[in-house]
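Hi R.,

Here's the chain you asked about this morning:
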Amino acid sequence: FKNGLDEIHGRRSYGTRVGAAKGTLLSLPNDKDPNARLHNKLSRVSKFIAGNYAIELTRRKNLQWSLDDFKYDNDNFIIGLSNTYTGIVSIAPGNVIIINNPLNISPGSTFTLRGAGANSNTYTITSTYYNPFASLSHNSLGIVYTGANTDIADNPFATHITVAESFVASYHGEATITFTNCKFPEVASAVLQSPVSGVIAPELTGNWLNMSLTPARMLQNNLSLITAGLQKIKGKVQFITGTGNFEAATQMYAAGKQEDYSGRRLSEMQSLDWNDPNARNVKPLWLPEIYRFQYPLTYRQFKQVLSNPHGYVQFYKFPTDVKQGFILSMDYQLKTGMANFELLKMYNPDADRLSLTETGGLLSTEVAHPMGG
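And the predicted structure, written out as tokens:
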């Protein structure tokens, strides 16, 4: 990140062709076609900084340059954490474990050493502090997480921990360590199947942070809203432009990762189909269809529904045709005792084929019958 050219946490713009002629992107910036205008805009811009360049630049500035005011002083940073970590560490003389990953451990955290001779064991941390120290007892360890300095007394990033079990200072060399119940920054090497591609120096991406928070992966958080308007035209969410390095691509482990794109490589400039089987939240919450009907309610019932209009309403006109929808609006006529419902059709592939038997049974035989939800 010497010059920030590899930074992938920038802004991305996408568009759809809803309402436009086939092949015309409705939200192209600076589009000269007066008929292709932007009707609606969904903006999701984080107030937190997740970019590695800004995070690392600020960290180095405070340690190596000065304590003067800086352009990021009033900003908040976000770092994705993991409760577990497995990696290769070095055990140096003086009970010092050298690990190339920053960590936030506390009493109650546990770690297991494997391949460490007599010290291959599971340890429970009973206390932590950060004061420099010269010697350690048999139940004390020093953990240096920069990998740059094995002298724990001089290293400003050393954590002094006490464990419940005895640690014998007889093994020096590499070992495998697994931390649980801790908070590790989720570095790229722990969540990616291979180094980041499309960058200048992929071999240096192992310690990158926030790989699950890149714009292409965050787009998936909002797909259930965007794909609602793409179902009938079978359209796609089309990448338009972006800032930073949007040519980068990452491939996350499939097991246990909801943000993994099914373990496949995902480019930061990738467009997504309306039914992409690998994308999260690709199924829409609703469909662009509105139901309107009247139904008799007492005023108390009306106020009760109005006080918590979330969830969905099931109703039917014919017992073999049950429909479902979210409340857009409702009002009440005191003279007639009738409530006017306006619902947004809920996405359910089987909704139009539901019968009363499948949804809980008959309630009444009025023109339209809300069934709860």
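Residues 19-36, 131-140, 144-157, 356-373 have pLDDT under 50 and may be disordered.

Let me know if you need anything else.
M.
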